[in-house]
Design brief:
alpha/beta, six-stranded mixed β-sheet, four-stranded mixed β-sheet, elongated
Length: about 475
């Protein structure tokens, strides 16, 4: 499935907006056990929508992707703990600030680092596109640390927990909340840097009505006390863990307990992965075989076309292609492309290019005498290809095709970046809630191994039948 989409009750008379938020940034955005999303930002935008009488579709996705989707027109606005900065004001229009923020740094609980000066020569983990990353970057020259970037908070945190990075910079509320709920980090200093404000954002010059509605609604929920209740619910000193509604750790860290508690999410992740794999394999095979056939055509134009297509899509990294289709094309063509469609197109074009190269190679590996003998018996070029060369070439290609099927299954994990909750992203979301990284990733790894083993057995069975 794609990220859970939450639609506030629709009406023909009410304005409707598509709004994006982050996926793993508690207490502002995170997923509950039942798969729904909650957090300060989520509750604020829902409360404002109710006050201002508009409907919305709320789509959780990674921060960077969501921000780009607003600029490409895929989304009308973003509420994702987004710091208002002068640079962002060049491309976004911001609401009135809805939360004051500040940045702190944290290290592993086992770390002996107490001062920023001790980070010299060490690596600091940062989340791309965030104010905390910009702040840390501004300190890099002074304190002499190295930087590594991550696209989500959970992976960034755990890079520090396991010792790959020495420290990380984060919003103070987010970091304190995560530590309170089980994250194995500590804060060496309570000194706050780069104080600023979060704001709701729309593309510059667009969706002015939505921005005005947000500002009015924000003033309204502050006046009636709704805003304070929301913030206190997640950050108040008297905060209590509410079953199914907090990002707190589970009662047990055993793999069996975590699997039992989260099996519906794992099942959904597996189903989405299988859907992407099956549809991707079928379409990539059709596209690849077509490119392979054109690659051995009599026409030089067709051969050149096939070679160019194979060269381009084998040369593009899968992640770059996914972003280009999902975010770049909508901006260029002024159309909206659903995440699942973008994911399938990505797999089809990329995996199909490799398949095309295998198929073409299989055809060309058939002895030339086979073609000559077929032509001498009165068959046309395409008749000779269809009845003589292609059957032999496809048999040669089978092992490579089977290997490509397995690669397609594994490549689906990359599509989490454009908003698809396949198995890998399911693991990310559960880890963000439970903070049990080793156990969850062990479960995910085992599930992948089982699926790949089953696919391998099936492929070997098909291969043995073809050879027979």
């Amino acid at each position: 499935m794609i990220f859970p989409i939450f639609v506030v009750e629709a009406s023909a008379q009410k304005p409707h907006y598509n709004i994006t938020t982050d996926v793993t940034y508690p207490p502002f955005e995170f997923q509950k056990k039942n798969g729904a999303y909650t957090g300060i930002d989520v509750e604020i935008i829902r409360a404002i929508a109710k006050k201002e009488d508009f409907t919305m579709t709320l789509k959780p996705i990674s921060f960077n992707s969501g921000a780009q989707m607003v600029l490409s027109g895929q989304m009308d606005g973003i509420i994702a703990a987004m710091t208002i900065t002068s640079e962002r004001k060049k491309v976004y229009d911001f609401s009135k600030p809805y939360y004051r923020t500040g940045i702190i740094w944290a290290v592993s609980k086992k770390s002996h680092i107490t001062k920023l000066s001790q980070l010299k020569g060490k690596t600091v983990a940062l989340k791309t596109g965030t104010a905390s990353a910009d702040y840390a970057k501004s300190l890099q020259k002074k304190y002499g640390f190295k930087i590594t970037y991550f696209s989500d908070s959970n992976t960034m945190y755990n890079d520090v927990v396991v010792g790959n990075s020495a420290a990380t910079f984060e919003d103070q509320s987010v970091m304190k909340y995560a530590i309170k709920n089980g994250l194995q980090l500590k804060i060496p200093s309570n000194k706050i840097g780069n104080a600023g404000y979060y704001g709701f954002a729309v593309k510059k010059g667009k969706n002015k009505a939505l921005l005005k509605a947000f500002n009015r609604g924000l003033a309204s929920i502050k006046k009636d006390g709704t805003y304070d209740k929301i913030v206190k619910k997640y950050l108040g000193e008297s905060q209590k863990k509410i079953s199914g509604n907090s990002a707190s750790t589970e009662n047990s860290s055993s793999i069996w307990y975590l699997l039992k508690q989260n099996w519906p999410s794992f099942v959904n992740g597996v189903v989405e992965t299988i859907k992407l794999t099956v549809v991707g394999i079928i379409l990539a095979s059709i596209w690849g075989i077509l490119m392979g056939v054109l690659g051995v055509a009599e026409s030089k134009i067709l051969r050149t076309f096939s070679n160019i297509i194979i060269y381009i899509f084998r040369g593009l990294p899968l992640l770059v292609l996914a972003f280009f289709i999902y975010i770049g094309l909508p901006h260029l063509l002024n159309v909206k492309i659903p995440a699942f469609v973008a994911g399938i197109l990505t797999l089809t074009l990329n995996e199909g290019a490799y398949t095309g190269a295998f198929v073409k190679g299989g055809f060309l590996s058939v002895d030339k005498g086979q073609m000559e003998a077929a032509r001498s018996n009165g068959l046309s070029y395409w008749q000779a290809m269809r009845y003589v060369v292609m059957p032999q070439g496809m048999r040669i290609t089978v092992p490579s095709l089977i290997n490509q099927f397995i690669i397609t299954l594994k490549d689906t994990s990359i599509l989490q970046a454009i908003g698809l909750v396949e198995l890998t992203q399911t693991g990310n979301l559960i880890v963000a809630r439970t903070q049990q990284g080793f156990q969850i990733w062990a479960i995910v790894a085992i599930i992948y191994l089982v699926m790949i083993t089953l696919l391998t057995w099936l492929s070997n069975f098909v291969q043995s039948k073809i050879k027979a």
